[in-house]
Design goal:
The chain is an alpha+beta fold and about 190 residues long. The protein has five helices and five strands. Helix content is about 20%, strand content about 15%. GO terms for molecular function: 2 iron, 2 sulfur cluster binding; electron transfer activity; metal ion binding.
């Protein structure tokens, strides 16, 4: 009732008395949208920002083109191509696997540029490493549902960030993908 009265007063006040301002509830008492409600131990601003984050940290591939600062930061990744050829590349802690693959000429498209909007960077993660990765988000799972050749160990490579414990992780490219290129273009970072 109070909310309806306040809305009516605001409408009438603006039409019949343009200079008149009706009192507003203090910000602390105003209702908040569900996504902005604070959780125990968190701040309202951090919770609101967290609600809008869609995917992992995205550096646009620039970070992956830099060499590691220390030999301790090197993490090796094995990519198995569609034909079965194994390519071992050296990345570093924090590298996005999709951009790392593109840097080394591995044919992973990444049409959405790691914005979590397609499934063209779909890979199969070796069983040994699958459980070591963070669980996929609901959005990633929805996109994986559209990927051809889905398996239990399927992940989007744009959502995998390298860590030291992922040394020698083995990723296999599926035989088919939802390729958005129609002219034979090879993917390159922007």
């Amino acid at each position: 009732m109070a909310a309806a009265t306040a809305a009516a007063c605001a409408l009438l006040g603006s039409r019949f008395a343009p200079g008149l301002r009706w009192p507003r509830l203090p910000r602390a008492l105003a209702p908040r949208p569900r996504h902005a409600q604070a959780k125990p131990g968190g701040s309202r601003l951090a919770d609101a920002a967290r609600a809008f984050r869609a995917s992992t940290r995205n550096n646009g591939g620039e970070y992956e083109w830099k060499d590691p600062d220390s030999p301790l930061d090197v993490v090796h990744v094995e990519f198995v191509s569609r034909s079965g050829e194994v390519t071992r590349v050296a990345g570093k802690v924090g590298d996005n696997v999709m951009y790392l693959a593109q840097r080394h000429g591995i044919s992973i498209e990444g049409a959405c540029e790691a914005s979590l909007a397609c499934c063209t960077c779909h890979v199969y993660v070796d069983d040994k490493f699958y459980d070591m990765l963070p669980s996929p988000t609901e959005t990633e799972e929805d996109l994986l549902d559209m990927a051809p050749g889905l398996r239990e160990t399927s992940r989007l490579s744009c959502q995998i960030l390298l860590r030291r414990d992922l040394e020698s992780i083995k990723l296999t490219l599926p035989r088919a993908t939802r390729n958005f290129y129609v002219d034979g273009h090879r993917p390159t970072p922007h």
